[in-house]
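Could you help me review a protein record that somebody else here produced? This is what I was given.
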Amino acid sequence: MRVDLLAGATYNPAVMPSPVPTILVFDSGLGGLTVFSEILKVRPDARYVYAADDAGFPYGRLSEAVLAERVVSVMERLIALHDPDLVVVACNTASTIVLPHLRERFSVPFIGTVPAIKPAAQMTQTGYVTVLATPGTVARDYTRDLIETYAAGCRVNLVGSRRLAGIAEAEMAGEPVSDDELMAELQPCFVADEGGRTDVVALACTHYPLLLPRFQALAPWPVNWIDPAPAIARRVTQLIGQPVPGHEADENEAVAVFTSGSGISPALRGALQDKGLPVVAIEEMPLLVG
């Protein structure tokens, strides 16, 4: 069996989703909204559940064993409630650790998210590539294996930010940080020496594209920013097909579900509505770490 975190494990092609599928997009918080927005463009007819496990956010603070147990438990509840035809795990940390567990436990197909190191290596002209991620993703063997496989000829700069995911969440909630604070996290992405300088930055956390306009404005020189969301959206249509002619989803066919909801503010509700998620629900699932 061929296993690919982005594409999903091979599954029985005879078991196909319904003509109008239910798609569950899952993340630890709001970062997966970048992926949801791209999937919505290619399947505007689908029913959507955007699930944010904000009770467990940020996942980087959890051990791999605790994270695996947490995500499988939350996913079990979500699948039982919403019966999705496809699940998109819009989180690098969860994808690299938990996807094998999810595929073993559930029959629904999963699409994961991995650092876009291969396209970054293909795009660079200088050979200087930065992977901007969380500390956990930077430290993961899977990330280093991708570099060895696809970017061995590049100078790859791994930058693990502890703050950017939280900064992106604050931005969505209407509480942006200052340019100076943001630039402190962004500055290590830009390397310049006698051999060349960074010309590609792969955003290896789905939260980070939420800040992309500010990244572009603050960058000391222009670079190509790689957002994995469009590639994930393309994979969705490969697995479940193109939109159903004549069907248009209504506002009741997209809901945002939070496992805590403690940070939901009027500003965030407005941002969710602007993203195509007018309905917000709380499915309380506290994080219990013994």
